[in-house]
Automatic annotation (TrEMBL):
One of its GO terms (cellular component) is DNA-directed RNA polymerase complex. Keywords: DNA-directed RNA polymerase, Transcription. GO terms for molecular function: DNA binding; DNA-directed RNA polymerase activity. GO terms for biological process: DNA-templated transcription. It comes from Sphingobacterium hungaricum. It holds the Pfam family RNA_pol_Rpb6. This is RNA polymerase Rpb6.
Amino acid sequence: MSNTKTIVPNSTVTRDLRQLDESTENIYESIVVISKRANQISVDLKEELNNKLSEFASSNDNLEEVFENREQIEISKHYERMPKPSLVAVDEFLNNKVYFRNPSKEQE
């Protein structure tokens, strides 16, 4: 994810579809770009979360230790409060923070 802080809403936002196809001139192409970026963000977040939670993993977990680990719970809650990858991807796309290209258009 980018280091610059932008305010991305945590809930669904109504969008004007005409804004989405300004850079590609095709709404479907825009949706593909946004969905691929959302997948990238999702994979990065999942990897980051797994790395942070792996610090807490032990070979002999008992049930009490799992439920009592407050730091692990706080990390999980932080990631749950973050905006969904699809919302971040739409925001990045609308603010021209996503690089994309269409090889079939380049060949023409």
